[in-house]
Recover the amino acids of this structure.
């Protein structure tokens, strides 16, 4: 017997017990008549299960049940079993059958509606699920879970205006900290507004993002891009400096934009000062290499190489080691160059095989930065890898 058939049999045992109890309370004449009907239907249903015809078995058992306070839990348990096993169509049919019963109490009907909404979510029928959860969010008992599901739906459909509204309502209901999520919803909304050519509303959205989460570095990255594209280079630099205070580990994400901004201003000293401040906040290999490039232009390769070597002693990194080996290859004797190239290749392979970013929630690793983890769907959980193999 397959697992699903086993669980169905287990779930159906209470049906016989409940029905038998009821029959025992009736008169002898009616008991004899009903018991025969019960036995036939019950064993017909079991026969369908044993012959792996669960659809017919469900129909048979559902017909046996009177939906009331004593049997509704059996219905709901069976529906949950089907949904968890991926048999969503059967779960939907069973829960729809429950809701269609006019004798249901309002409480049982709402619970059945909630289960049907979860069925629709599992089936990807977001429009139907949305209608149900909109109805249930007015019910205090189901408000929090309904808002959670609506928030998920609006993320999936990229309806960020609705996502923001629902998330703010949810925060006041479940008393959980949804600030990072709300901030990212505002950032998504801002990016949508930028694509539509509406930079002013986008800046308002980004301001709201930072009001909810002052550490939302993504908001400052987008604000700096808007300022740069509008030729407001000093304003862009202001946002870059704010980002260092928020989290210096993300400086490598913007280092090229920072260099381009200072280049537009013709301010080489300003760029050098920015890198020096970044080094004080955190010893990022990317920042180290950017500062070494300035030293190389000003004072030559030897000074730049000595600076990289000094930084590697304080904080070893494969990225910094690769650059140091590359610089030695350029100045190596012909006899020593092949060995250095082999060493470079080995270190480079090791470095390229490592993730540059990792989700602190589920461990997902990637070479690119994701604001929402593709694996566990959590926001702000993907961070730069720090240490020998990362920044």
């Amino acid at each position: 017997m397959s697992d699903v058939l086993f669980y169905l049999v287990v779930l159906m045992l209470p049906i016989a017990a409940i029905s038998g109890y009821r029959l025992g309370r009736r008169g002898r004449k009616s008991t004899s008549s009903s018991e025969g009907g019960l036995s036939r239907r019950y064993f017909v249903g079991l026969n369908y299960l044993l012959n792996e015809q669960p659809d017919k078995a469900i129909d048979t058992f559902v017909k046996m049940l009177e939906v009331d306070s004593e049997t509704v839990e059996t219905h709901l348990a069976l529906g949950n079993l089907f949904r968890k096993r991926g048999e969503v169509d059967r779960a939907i049919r069973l829960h729809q059958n429950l809701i269609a019963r006019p004798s249901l109490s309002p409480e049982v009907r709402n619970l059945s509606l909630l289960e049907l909404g979860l069925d629709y979510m599992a089936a990807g029928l977001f429009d139907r699920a949305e209608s149900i959860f909109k109805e249930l969010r007015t019910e205090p008992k189901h408000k929090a879970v309904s808002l959670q599901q609506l928030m998920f739906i609006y993320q999936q459909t990229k309806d960020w205006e609705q996502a923001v509204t629902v998330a703010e309502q949810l925060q006041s209901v479940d008393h959980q900290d949804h600030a990072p999520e709300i901030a990212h919803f505002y950032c998504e909304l801002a990016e949508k507004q930028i694509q539509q050519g509406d930079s002013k509303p986008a800046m308002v959205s980004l301001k709201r993002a930072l009001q909810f989460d002052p550490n939302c570095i993504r908001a400052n990255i987008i604000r700096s891009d808007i300022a740069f594209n509008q030729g407001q280079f000093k304003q862009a630099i202001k946002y870059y400096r704010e980002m260092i205070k928020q989290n210096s580990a993300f400086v490598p994400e913007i280092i090229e934009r920072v260099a381009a901004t200072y280049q537009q201003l013709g301010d080489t000293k300003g760029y050098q000062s920015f890198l020096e401040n970044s080094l004080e906040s955190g010893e990022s290999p990317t920042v180290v290499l950017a500062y070494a490039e300035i030293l190389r232009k000003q004072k030559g390769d030897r000074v730049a190489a000595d600076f990289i070597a000094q930084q590697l002693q304080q904080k070893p990194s494969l990225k910094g080691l690769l650059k140091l080996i590359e610089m030695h290859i350029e100045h190596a004797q012909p006899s020593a160059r092949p060995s250095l190239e082999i060493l470079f290749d080995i270190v480079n392979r090791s470095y390229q095989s490592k993730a540059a970013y990792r989700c602190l929630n589920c461990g997902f690793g990637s070479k690119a930065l994701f604001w929402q983890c593709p694996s566990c769907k959590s926001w702000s959980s993907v961070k730069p890898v720090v240490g020998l193999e990362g920044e």
